[in-house]
Amino acid sequence: MKRTWLHLRQISQEFWFLPAIMTVLALILAEAGIKAEETYGVPKGLHFVYGGGETGSRSLLSAIAGSSIGVAGTVFSITIAALSYAAGSMGPRLLDNFTRDRGNQITLGTFIATFAFSLYTLRSVTGSNDQVFVPHYNVTFALGLALASVAMLVYYLAHVTASINMTHVANLLRDDMRDSLMKATLREDPDRDLSVAPPPEFWAGGEVLHAPSGGYLQLTDNELLLKKAGEADVALLLHVRPGDYVFPNSVIAVGVPRLPRDVMDALSLGDRRTVGQDLEYSVRQLSEVAARALSPGVNDPVTAIDVVDRFGDALCSLQDRRWPDGVYYKDHVLRLVVPVTDFSGLTNSMFSMIRQYGKGSPSVMVRMLEVLGTTASCLKDDERRAVIRHHAELVREDALANIENSADRADVENRYRKVLDTLANGQDAEIREAARHAVRQAQGSRVN
What we know:
Keywords: Membrane, Transmembrane, Transmembrane helix
Shape: flat
Pfam families: DUF2254
Number of strands: 12
Radius of gyration: 30 Å
Transmembrane segments: 60-85, 106-125, 137-158
Largest sheet: 5 strands, mixed
Number of helices: 15
Protein name: DUF2254 domain-containing protein
């Protein structure tokens, strides 16, 4: 069932989906309007309904159809230009964020639906000697669609300009990342019983499942796998998780004492990674924006700093949440073990690439240490705080090895000591530092 919903969701996000639906609805409305007028006519009291004749309706519908398809071509051109800019400056993986944007789809759908409605209505206008028919309802509705098209054009020009703004893109990717994290993690429960996976020896001698084809693992239906393992009275171990590339004939699962039937029905392979269960994909999209911003051809550390801020936002939102352990029991019997993304792996995906590309940029390295220090004050778990300390050490080491200016090196050392102080003393150190910063700002304001 999850595979079906995944495919339906992917289809619904295609760029052509909403325009196609809107066009079909426009054709249905056009036919319904023609049939209604043929059957009931137009009441005299409806003064807003178009009252012209056959020649005027032909001219009006022709003008609406021609102008709407012409503007649709302009919209296509603007979209292609925006996509080219996005691919060059933010990476080709971000093209999905533009093509699946509902605003872009509705705008294009409005123009195409207006064209289809007007053209279909135009074919029903007749003016022969023995029969004259003017679809007054449809001509009136076509005028309304023309006005809606003008409004959508104004909206689209503003929308597409905002959509290629780096901050806007970073916020969209942050929202995707946050939603994925909230779905993948659980509320912290201090009374929960920890589930422990069996040792590797437990799986020795089990039946092995080889991948029938290659591709990215887009989705894992754990409920279906658990059901199949329970019905077959076996234990199942998955070797891959969403986001991994599965190679043909590679080992993807082991069943003890045997494999349940149709394991592949619960796994969905595709040609590309998708947002959802693949947590690191959303993170890597933001990391790629920062890496491109730090390239010598772009040299935009401000965008990289914006991305680092979004990563700190995501990590602090995990304060009261825990990762699933990936071990599933049913009736106190082990049935399923799946690999899961942990805090360490997520943090590596966030900061490693930016640190490697930005190690010569003092502003980026200083900001990374500041974000790590703030994150350390948000987190309570000792293991997570140890991960933050590890990344702070890596940032300090790379920064001192690549930054020559003594003042910049001193700033790095100062931020690093603040991270250690926060890790040692918790939120109290962060509060004291915020108070000192506020006092310095107040004193500077009085001096000015």
